[in-house]
Design brief:
alpha+beta, 294 residues, 5-stranded antiparallel β-sheet
Amino acid sequence: MFQGEAGFINGLKSTPDQADMVDALFNNPDFQKLWDYLKNCKAVTIDLEIKSPLPLGGANRCGAYIPGKGGNNPTVVIDPKHALHNDNPSELLDTLIHELIHALSAVRNACGEEGWPLPPGATDWEHDSTVPDPTVPQPKKGDANDDNKKHARKHYGDGASDPINEYLDENDKAQEFMARLVIDALKKTAGGAPYYRLKGGTTTTLKNLKKLYGVQSLTKDLKKVRSITWEPDPCWRRTSTRSGWINQCKCDWCEVIVKFDDGTVQIDLVDGGDKVERDLDSLHIKRIAGWENP
């Protein structure tokens, strides 16, 4: 069960865009199953806290799951005013889901299997049955190479609060789940025509999945495209080629809004440094996330 639920949810909404995206997240059925599993478990009481700043382990954290002594009265704490969260409300959702997955993994034995909300294989390092040597802590990037470090590099990727020195402590399957929820919230809170302004952008998890799995590539038929909008416009640099042009995203992330003759709209988020290329009658997009609005 939760302690401090109402104040915690309200505290997450430190900006109007954060409020809209948090509301969209709580209206997602898969997230609601996750929340209700923890809320309805009578065996464990989880304290929910808002704290800013949140210095832990030598870094200013976006959030944390603190087990408590002997696993009793664990705490989920979030800093909604962290720079990452202020600049990009998608990161706030990412952090919240991340810490709740830690809570789920920790209380699973006490709360039981009924209503378990995570997809198969989604877990954190401490509860990952595929870790080669579970008797030692998760390695840091500066540690000597061994099987555990290879596993972290292949299935976990860069940490969020300290990507230079740490690996993320939740695996790729958990990250896929987080990404689906964040993309759904972005889609539901996107503004209307003609600009389709997003409340947030790409997240460290989406960028991490790109590193783990590679970039997504899409090809669109230019004959069916009515118009293309580039957001933010100053972030795109165009280079002419013999058969068309290449637009490269020069910011942390960019948005491409493709409007088709049939009235549908495709929204694609492009990572910094990635490209959109026109070649004859085709449009080739390397994207980190996206969706179609019918």
